[in-house]
Model the fold of this input.
Amino acid sequence: MYSCRDKTSISQKCFSHFVCLFLPSLSFDNSAYTRYREVAALRQEASLPVRANVIFEIFPFGILFNDNLVITLVGSSLRLIMPNIVGG
Done:
């Protein structure tokens, strides 16, 4: 799938005559896969054609919060039941 050159190595660290730790290492260029994931994430984000008003039609009891957890929008049924609710 990807043509790349890799480099493998094993390092050894001994703590005493009885305990040694062998650490395998694999180094390779991962930029092709990283770019693929970035493009896939952009494609997925662009393919979300649903607007907030459609979601609130489907879920009339929905509540939308902003990053600070302040209510910014509420569904139409909540507005009928609670006309003084914060958020439009």
